[in-house]
Structure formats: C-alpha cells, structure tokens
Amino acid sequence: MKKIITTSNAPAPIGPYNQAVLSGNTLYTSGQIAFNPETGDLVLDDIKTETAQVMQNLKAVLEAAEMTFEQVIKTSIFISNMDDFAQINEVYGSYFNDDTAPARETVQVARLPKDVNVEISMIAIK
To answer: How far apart are CA 55 and CA 23, in angstroms?
Structure first.
C-alpha cells in the first residue's frame, strides 16, 4: 500500500511528485532543496545555511510521517561543488548520531534544480 506524505512545514513540490511516499514501513522522501516553506524563497546565503534549510525541510517531512532522523537508513546527497563537501557534511552530521548514522552517497553533479548547491533525499523505516 502506498501512502502520500505531505506537510505545509516543507516546500510544496514544484513538479509531478510528492514530498514523500510511505510504502509499508518504508518512507521514501523526494530530494529537498533550500526553499523556506514559510516564504517560498531559496535560502542561499552560504552553504552551511543552505544545507541547514535542506535538513529542516527533511525533518518536517519525516515528522509528517511520524518519524525521526534516527529511522533514516539511507541518504543521497547531490552537490554542485565537491569543495563544499566538508561544510555540508558538518551540518548534515549534526542531525545524526555517528554510531547509528545511515548509509550514504555524496555525488557532485553538473547542475541542480533552481541552481542550488545541495539536494538531499532519504529513505527511512518505521
């Protein structure tokens, strides 16, 4: 069974997709970028602030599914510049316990939606 997860505490989708889909006990989030859900503006002040907004958006989606970062088992991070990796990793890492952190890949890509610098998606289990 497939259940669509939505929340006004994260940016609304900008295309034909949903914020997340719960299938059984597994949650698949769509990639989040640094839209502020209250203003609709992109938060691109610096890479740490941008990453923090992405993580807050993901937190809101997890909460809408009654889940937390502790239940995340896999993340995918897409970045436009590998030179930003250390700063992104610092912010990202603050949301997880090192001993139970999820599996992850980080990939540099040529371009991201709205020309942002980072996009993150997650898979979590109940």
So the answer is: 22
Q: Cα separations (Å) of 65 from 11, 92, 109?
A: 15, 20, 29
Supply the range of the domain harboring residue 68.
Answer: 2-125
CATH number at residue 69: 3.30.1330.40
In Å, how far are 95, 111, 123 from 52, measured between CA atoms? 9, 20, 18
Amino acid found at 111:
R
The total number of structural domains that make up the chain: 1
Mean pLDDT in residue range 43-60: 98
- Quote the mean pLDDT of the chain: 97
Q: What is the pLDDT of residue 14?
A: 86
